[in-house]
What does this fold into?
Amino acid sequence: MIIKENVCNNITTINLWGTLDATTAPTLRNFKSAAAPADPVVINMSDVDFLDSSGLGALVGLTREKREQGGEVTLACMNNKVRKVFEITQVYRLFDIYDDVEAATINAEKKQTRL
Amino acid sequence: MKTLIIIKEKDYAWLRPIFTGIHPLLVPICNKPFIEFLIDFAILAGSDALRILSDGPLSDVEEYCDNGSRWGIAISYGSIKSSDETLLIMEKNHRYCAGERVLLMNGFVFIEYDKQHNYTALFAELPDGEILGCNKGSLSLRGTPGERPKVAGALPLSLVELDSLEVYYRLSMEILSFGESPYVIPGYSNEAYCHIGRNVVISKSAEIRKPVIIGNNVQIMADSIIGPLAVIGSNVIIDKASTVTDSIVLEKTYIGEQLEVQNRIAAGNILIEPESGISIAMDDPHLLTGIKKSGSAEILFQSVVHRLFALFLITVLLIPFLLLSPILKFQRKWKKSTGSYYINDAGKTLALTTTSINRQSLPGSIAAALSLDRFGLLFNVLSGQLAIIGSTPIAAKTDNSVPLLEMGSWYKAGVFSYAEAEEWPANGDERAIVERYFAVHGNPLLDIAMTIKAFFNLIHEIHTP
Amino acid sequence: MIFHVDASTGKTLGIVDLSGRLDAANSSELLKSFAVWQQQANMFVFNCTRLDMIDSSGLGAIVACLRKALEKNGELKLAALNQKVSMVFELTKAKKLFSIFPDTGSAIQSF
It folds into this structure.
């Protein structure tokens, strides 16, 4: 699992590569984003090739933490495999999901300036 | 052109209690799943790709439609939130929508069309904006809000709001009444008003009165009368001397002998009056029954493994139980309470005796660490009522209709829960996430591993309060 | 199942109040009791106000009661069927065999 941050349209995007399972979930859980706590982040899932329940736990945990601080997490570019895990666990109810990173960041920025 | 189908849970909520266990998009209208009518129309309109979006589950739809190669159209799926407006939904699917015209089918509405008409040419002429609208949904091009385009003459199209059983029934009867159907209806049809599927056995003395639609693998026994106006789904048996008129018999239904099904919808063991929506569940094999598949070998294997492991835990825990429970009972730190809990997704309930142990003493904390509070429940596993590991049992409420709907087909109450094994937060919604995950990805051996993990997690939990 | 005799119209009518479920578990009981009640009356009204559910064996028992009553030149009428019970009657051809009234009063008056 590789985690890399960059800024796109003034919004922090977290790019994930690799598998997100029991062995790699702690890496994501302990990841400290450079974005201010209340700033929105977009997680680019396009290169996540596997996700299990621990990985989901890390994503949900990260999102909950962010929301407690007044921020928002948006997901972008899920592949079919990952989407199916979201589907069976009904986690999709918790997230805004985009099929494009750029559109996700534009909307996250819009939302932020509106506040 | 591309098509976006947007369907929100609230639009079809009325359908869920009637057609339990079937996704509203797959509800058959004249033996053809509703989604297929939409797919057919998208193709007629000239779409080469279609995306189905919902704020609810779509896995059943995905399993049925797959990637759409069957129809020659690329089908993809996506999730939205209940509060999303059309514009936001378009943005969420920016990559899909970019650069092409998009036909939006919004809401749980049936589109009345005619397969003979050239909709590709029609839509090419239409400007962007809403083409048709009604209270429950709309059909639009690109979805840009704006004034309604002027179209010369009436459109060869209309929308039907699918918002009650009565509409569903009426629509089915209407489709049935077209001799030369404007829709593609499944089944063989060498004469008008009559569509018959594969492997249909009709007794010599049975009578078929047009119009009728009959699905696959249907048996119609002696002296029965089918029609006029009957939709018989697949895998249906109509027993001797019964009559089915002005009715819809949904798949996997058995209609007993000498019955008169008139102006009704029969779905499994449920009989519904479409006008009033009144339904009754028959618990009677001589009247109506749902035809069910028997359990597969895999389920049998799983239950054997669960029982064996429960037996193992009982033998291991028997001595600590016999030693500690009298002490704790004497100290009044062993509290029992009985409540009714759902044990499976069909809403079957069971009275379970749950135990809570006060951990403020050495015997108490040892008993809790050994999960002796679950000891009694292990016997429910032996009798096959509970799983060794599964979902946290949901307490049955007197108003049982609501939680029942929220339970998915994955629900099976267990002595231990997957959430305990994975140390997930014990918060209702989030616990359900992990339970659903394992309901799909589980296997008997993994179950045992997870039970052991849950068992040790519970010990750990006590040491770090 | 409560039985009482009503003579308010000058005729001896047996009124049977059915309640709960009428199914395989208690339909034979109805048949046995009916033979006893027939010694006191031969015109009957089955008051179904509190009858919640009926299945094919319950239906069979009621039809058998009707047959027994007709054998002795009597009559059996049904009153106050709820929607679920009446849907079962409509589904089977049994509805045609019975005179069905919306309430017990009108059933009693009809004799």
Remarks:
- The two ends of chain A are 34 Å apart (CA to CA).
- Strands of chain A lie at 2-8, 11-20, 41-51, 73-76, 96-98.
- Chain A has a mean pLDDT of 89.
